Amino acid sequence: xxxxxxxxxxxxxxxxxxxxxxxxxxxxxxxxxxxxxxxxxxxxxxxxxxxxxxxxxxxxxxxxxxxxxxxxxxxxxxxxxxxxxxxxxxxxxxxxxxxxxxxxxxxxxxxxxxxxxxxxxxxxxxxxxxxxxxxxxxxxxxxxxxxxxxxxxxxxxxxxxxxxxxxxxxxxxxxxxxxxxxxxxxxxxxxxxxxxxxxxxxxxxxxxxxxxxxxxxxxxxxxxxxxxxxxxxxxxxxxxxxxxxxxxxxxxxxxxxxxxxxxxxxxxxxxxxxxxxxxxxxxxxxxxxxxxxxxxxxxxxxxxxxxxxxxxxxxxxxxxxxxxxxxxxxx
Length: 331
What we know:
Blueprint: H1 14-27, E1 30-33, H2 42-52, E2 60-63, H3 73-76, H4 90-104, H5 108-111, H6 114-132, H7 149-161, H8 163-167, H9 173-185, H10 192-205, H11 230-237, H12 254-276, H13 282-304, H14 309-323
């Protein structure tokens, strides 16, 4: 079945989306609604309308959203949920971006100019590096900046304005670097040190050498060619290492150890939450912990009998006083 309708849920799109859904439900078509996380409250209205629709057996509804906590849990359980996690390496992220862009790109000027295709692949690699550097906090970035698809689309739009200059070798790389820094990626950064890191990456990736047929990023072992075929770029990206070591990000090898320690701490924290149960306040957690250790306290009281902590401390001090003054000790 063809995907029918792709309404983007923003203000004023709710009624249009319902009209498309009603028609698709009757005809047995598929509908994909993206950016659903922007209007989580609309799910209640959508669920109510779906119950009233006349639906064909072939009708399917896909709701695409980012991770959010705004949805009604009672309604969410009625849907089949599919979780997609982005791959965690420069290689995989760049390949996914290349595949998506190759399918969507229809501009004939870009498709017949190897330089224009190459500069977009360079941008995919740049975004992948910025995203994967988040695995090394605080060595890589001081914060987990949400570099994502919107930043990439903004940068691609900027490149499109400058395509004619790129083709004629009249591209001012300094202008491109500053535009992408201030309009695309740099807007998320609020730390001067992180901003300098971003500027260094822009200088390293966005330059004349990047469009040469011998450009080899990172450690220089994989050459990214200048080609008019998306498949050539895909083959080159496939040769990148499957695991990103710290030196790729120009970080110390000890960064891996620090990252693993932080990961271990987060796992321990999750285990504590899993064991004691998540709660809305520290007070509730303390009550649960008290309930868990109460049997141990009761057992201790039985074993101690009539002894008290105060009495035990007094006896302890008597023993210390007695044997710390040997001239009072009895033979």
